[in-house]
Amino acid sequence: MAQRLALRRLLLLTPRAPLAPPGRAFGTSAGRGSTFNVQDGSDFQDRVVNSPKPVVVDFHAQWCGPCKILGPRLEKMVAKQEGKVVMAKVDIDDHTDLAIEYEVSAVPTVLAMKNGDVVDKFVGIKDEDQLEAFLKKLIGA
């Protein structure tokens, strides 16, 4: 128990390096390139608001336990859509301005965006069946 607490403190104090160079997509093997981390407001505008495909936006935080459960589950479900939808991950601690703009008051918050507009949203954890229904509604399947 003491070791876990010491490790947790160490992780909180260790500076984090960015996961991907600015302006570059960050894909995961589970997402087969369909998932990326938002780098800044301009990146969000280009890759989310101006996206020709529907976009699932996952507002999360590193310290959020439910986010760590939902994120991989959501990435897996987006990957199953075979390129019909993409997923943008937004860390609210790094992009507070986007969280405020999209009225995110709790994490995880997931937005469904189409043609730059928010068409659906949920807060909290969902099971795979609920996520599948959410995505099918977004892509019109």
From TrEMBL:
Give Gene Ontology CC terms: mitochondrion
Query: Transport: is it a keyword of this entry?
Result: yes
Name the CDD domains on file.
TRX_family
What name does the UniProt record give this protein?
Thioredoxin, mitochondrial
Q: Keyword annotations for this protein?
A: Disulfide bond, Electron transport, Redox-active center, Transport
Q: Which residues form the Thioredoxin domain?
A: 24-140
| Family recorded in the similarity comment | Belongs to the thioredoxin family.
Which Gene3D superfamilies has this protein been placed in? Glutaredoxin
Entry annotated with the keyword Transmembrane: no
Say which domain of life the source belongs to: Eukaryota
Native species: Scytalopus superciliaris
Q: What is the lineage of its organism?
A: Eukaryota, Metazoa, Chordata, Craniata, Vertebrata
Q: Name one GO biological process term.
A: cell redox homeostasis
Q: Which GO terms describe its molecular function?
A: protein-disulfide reductase activity
